[in-house]
Design goal:
Number of helices: 8
Bound molecules: adenosine monophosphate
Distance between the termini: 13 Å
Number of strands: 5
Order of helices and strands: EHEHHHEHEHHEH
Helix content: 55-70%
Strand order of the largest sheet: 2-3-1-4-5
CATH superfamily: P-loop containing nucleotide triphosphate hydrolases
Structural class: alpha/beta
Strand content: 5-15%
CATH class: Alpha Beta
Largest sheet: 5 strands, parallel
Length: 190
């Protein structure tokens, strides 16, 4: 199964993506994790993206598309988390998957209000100390989500592949709704 999970920062995307990936036995491909690993390794990519991540800005589309192409090329199934964040990224992803006749099966959307996102991100900052969970960077990331990523949501809604889920519920309830949504598109039962 090829699953994309969308939602604002703090929507619980990472948590739910991990649960789905482990219950279906497919990789969780999270671009934020890939970039943070590059920063931690001190690789050339890491040095290039570190200031961008710290400001809560977006890494250039070309760089992200190449990164994801290399990561997905040999995968039949995956849960993609954090990409695409812009319409050009979505167009590149769809073209890439169409080329190999492996389109997305479903696009899950975790819906949460800005108030809930903010509250959760500030909580995460206290727990995990992520430098981009500082108030200025959070505000920037949410603004970019509305401006650049919401059009991606609308793209998949228009295509009919979008499955919206109420992300403000407790984790287990969100997971159950996702399981139901995956069942409707023919995923093996977890
Ligand atoms: P995340 O963990 O998904 O919130 O990503 C952390 C940071 O990595 C983001 O704030 C961006 O700076 C960068 N990033 C992750 N995915 C992308 C992407 N698809 N396009 C551009 N920047 C990204």
């Amino acid at each position: 199964m090829r699953i994309l999970i969308l939602g604002p920062q703090g929507s619980g995307k990472g948590t739910q993506a991990k649960l789905v990936a482990s219950s279906l036995g497919i990789p969780h491909v999270a671009t934020g994790d890939m970039l943070r690993a590059a920063v931690a390794n001190g690789s050339e990519l890491g040095r290039r993206v570190q200031p961008i991540l710290e400001r809560g800005d977006l890494v250039p589309d070309e760089l992200m598309v190449e990164l994801i192409r290399a990561r997905l090329v040999d995968e039949d199934g995956f849960v993609l988390d954090g990409f695409p964040r812009t319409v050009p990224q979505a167009e590149a992803l769809d073209a890439m998957l169409d080329e190999i006749a492996k389109p997305l099966d479903v696009v899950l959307l975790l819906e949460v209000s800005d108030e809930v996102s903010l509250e959760r991100l500030l909580g995460r900052r206290a727990d995990e100390g992520r430098s981009d969970d500082a108030p200025d960077a959070i505000e920037n990331r949410l603004r970019l989500y509305h401006e650049l990523t919401e059009p991606v949501v609308e793209r998949y809604r228009a295509k009919g592949t979008l499955a919206p889920v109420d992300g403000e519920q407790p984790v287990d309830d969100v997971a159950r709704e996702i399981e139901d949504a995956l069942g409707r598109v023919g995923a093996p039962q977890a």
